[in-house]
Amino acid sequence: MLKFILRTTKKGDIMKEKVCTGCGRKTTNYVTFPCVKCGHEIIRCANCRARALDYTCPNCGTSGP
Fold first, then answer.
1. CB 3.0-4.6 Å disulfide test: which of 37, 53, 54, 55 passes with 21?
2. What is the pTM of this model?
């Protein structure tokens, strides 16, 4: 079972920027989950999730939508 953690910015919150695994852009509105093959953290921005863009795990090369 995958565990998704949704992080969004709210007024007054300081969120750490992370780089989206799919598009490579810095974002503070993202979800993280482990790669199904190796467990490496995958970071997906809201834009890539909404458009179901593919990502590739930088650690093992596994890809998904």
1. 55
2. 0.72
